[in-house]
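Tokenised fold entry reproduced for absentees:

. . .
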Amino acid sequence: MMKRKAFGRDPKLSARMLLSGGALGFVYVIFAVVLFNVLNVGLAPMLIIVVGIAVFQYYTSDKLALAASGAKVVTAEEAPELHAMVERLCAMADIPKPRIAVIDTDMPNAFATGRSPKHSAIAITSGLWSRLEPREVEGVIAHELAHIAHRDVLVMTLASFFAMLAAMLTRMAMYAQMFGGGGNNRDNNNNNGLPVWIVVMLVSAITYALSFVLIRTISRYREYAADRGAALVTGAPENLMSALQKISSGIISIPDKDLREAAAMNAFFIVPTSVKSTIGELFATHPPMEKRLARLADIAREMGRPVA
């Protein structure tokens, strides 16, 4: 039986998560220190609020992601073939079986969530199950299990937290100015004479921008690592290649309105709903499809597998 190392633990992924996590941590410390001084609030209340929200997100991230996507956890009786497929792959890779959920939408896609292999879930859409062959679905599930094994889902969840907080504070500062703030009295200014709302908005915006780029750097590389892990554990990279192409083609046929509604999950989907977009790679959550397929093709050739 293959052990967990079959998912191909990637030293480069670990290094990137460590470096990006350190950079994000440095940015967030500066962010907190500036806000602490500018807002002139007690350290204890700020720590309680920030840590409280972070702890809540840590322990409920899987439930929140499933709820946000409209996924419904299914039992082995409700989806016997899907459960059997997941169980087989988990046994091959020696990782705990995650909860399994299905999203009732024609858009073909899948994602993994959870804080650890023992507290994780994978979700696939009904559109993916109906459009793909079983061998292709297996490749997709192996990709999601690789995310769980690599623990990059947790890193993405925690990294996204302060980015969301910074974005929220930016909006709050703008609303404060629009609906009652921005006065020139001493209480509304910091020590340098600048209005508090301007300082909060600028610091929050810079924090969000830096987080945005760093998170996407992690996100893009983790997709390569999960593709490689799926190829190694299934021994058939061509199946995942075929699945990725079908998913991309399927997403293109989905109405834009439906894609916009699902866009919040882009960083976690195996293929983003923005596949139609021409956004630059620096700002994308996933690597370009042609690069993913090219890397999988290289792995297939190394294995002596057929490449279309």
